[in-house]
Inverse folding.
């Protein structure tokens, strides 16, 4: 990851480099029907859609991204999850009876995934939890109106893309920490978008603020549109040995 401070009237490129690892999906014990649009090959800040089934009438559930959760676990017994109900977008409160502030348990829900998250402990110290490839899961459990009821507990394992550090210059980009001016473009040639194992490297961007755009498939052009940080994801098929993507 290349991190640079904001530079006025310029665009700083930040490249997230990952490999895809073929891993058989883990199966969770499901008390509530949970359908997730994507649970594998996840990248940081990726948004997934979630649909629930069989939430009893008059009840509600929380949906959180948690670090190594177990069925029946709660905050009082060591449950560690990203965010809270009061932190918008970090977790979901869904109900079947339209509780004020909740979302409908019968509709489509969306949640942003994080490859790591931080929590403040009882002593006021901040600790970061890294999801790695498979340390995190979606955890569905009863809301505050029945928090000790474990009948609806459901765990959906998540698989994140492992990260690698790649020198941007090897892709034809400026050195780490350099910036581009708004309006500039840079082309990544097909010859550079090949992994060390001969697999094609795919370039995407989940940028939603129109700071930059990516076009092309075999060869890719990154267009820097306005000031800010352009986040680009590179990924390629890999193996469980975590082969280096680009050497």
């Amino acid at each position: 990851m290349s991190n640079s401070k904001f530079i006025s009237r310029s665009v700083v490129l930040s490249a997230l480099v990952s490999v895809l690892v073929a891993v058989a999906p883990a199966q969770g014990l499901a008390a509530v029907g949970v359908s997730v649009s994507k649970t594998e090959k996840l990248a940081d800040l990726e948004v997934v859609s979630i649909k629930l089934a069989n939430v009893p009438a008059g009840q509600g559930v929380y949906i959180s991204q948690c670090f190594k959760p177990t069925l029946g676990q709660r905050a009082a017994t060591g449950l560690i999850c990203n965010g809270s109900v009061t932190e918008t977008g970090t977790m979901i409160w869904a109900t079947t009876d339209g509780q004020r502030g909740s979302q409908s348990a019968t509709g489509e829900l969306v949640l942003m995934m994080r490859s790591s998250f931080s929590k403040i402990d009882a002593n006021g110290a901040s600790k970061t939890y890294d999801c790695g490839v498979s340390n995190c899961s979606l955890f569905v459990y009863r809301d505050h109106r029945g928090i000790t009821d474990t009948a609806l507990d459901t765990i959906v394992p998540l698989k994140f893309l492992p990260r690698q550090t790649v020198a941007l210059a090897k892709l034809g980009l400026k050195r780490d920490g350099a910036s581009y001016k708004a309006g500039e473009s840079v082309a990544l040639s097909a010859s550079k978008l090949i992994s060390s194992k001969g697999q094609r490297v795919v370039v995407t961007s989940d940028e939603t603020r129109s700071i930059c755009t990516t076009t092309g498939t075999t060869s890719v052009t990154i267009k820097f549109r306005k000031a800010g940080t352009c986040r680009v994801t590179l990924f390629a098929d890999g193996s469980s040995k975590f082969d280096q993507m680009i050497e």
Summary: The chain has no helices and 18 strands. Residues 137 and 158 are 5 Å apart (CA to CA). The chain has two domains: 10-21+162-237, 33-157.
